[in-house]
Amino acid sequence: MTPQSEDEEFWLDAVKDIKKTASNQVVSAAKPRPIAPKEKTYYAVKQEFSTYSKFLDDFENGGIDKSTLRKFKREEFRVEAVLDLHGLTEDEAFAKVDSFIPQSYALGRRCVMIITGKGIRVHPDEDIFAAKGVLRKQVPQWLNMARLRAMILIYKHPSEKMGGSGALYILLRRNKDI
């Protein structure tokens, strides 16, 4: 067999089961798969988190009014109690946070602050903002636990003069039992 006849034979074998359609309608091609969204770039993620705010589910559902939100963003609420977690282990810090928030809520405090610190640098040359402390990451997750979230209206990292990303500025719900 010659190479050309081999190709012809292969082609005829491949198309032997194809039948001509009765109509002359053109069949459209299959719909293309949706394009996966692009991964967020470093700058998009940085912009997204540049406010250092975390709004809780109740806020997203309208649990806070505009004037309270404005006062909170401007840090106009007086901090009534501060919890400093510097030097504590993760377990010790969790126990402190888990008692501090309910205690503050029970005492009718409206605004409290938790100081987590910014974490320690691994190398002296490392940028201070590159380090991510364990407590700095964990405390916001703890605040989102159901039993604590029920007492918290909103929280965010305050301005640099109040501790920046090494602290959390927390607005508690009003305790109606007091």
Largest sheet: 5 strands, mixed
SS strand fraction:
5-15%
Shape: elongated
In which order are the strands of the major sheet placed? 1-4-5-3-2
- Mind telling me the CATH class of the domain at 52-172? Alpha Beta
What is the CATH topology of the domain at 52-172?
A: Ribosomal Protein S8, Chain: A, domain 1
Tally the helices: what do you get?
Answer: 7
Q: Which features would summarize this protein structure in a list?
A:
five-stranded mixed β-sheet; single chain; Ribosomal Protein S8, Chain: A, domain 1; alpha+beta; 178 residues; 5 strands
Task: Describe the fold and architecture.
- With 178 residues, this protein is α+β, with helices and mostly antiparallel strands.
- The chain has a domain at 52-172: Ribosomal Protein S8, Chain: A, domain 1.
- Helices cover 35% and strands 12% of the residues.
- It is built from 7 helices and 5 strands.
- It has helices at residues 3-15, 42-48, 57-60, 66-73, 90-106, 134-143, 146-149; strands at 53-54, 81-84, 111-115, 152-156, 167-172.
- A 5-stranded mixed β-sheet has the order 1-4-5-3-2, with helices on one face.
- Helix 5 (90-106) runs parallel beside helix 6 (134-143).
- The chain is elongated, with a radius of gyration of 30 Å.
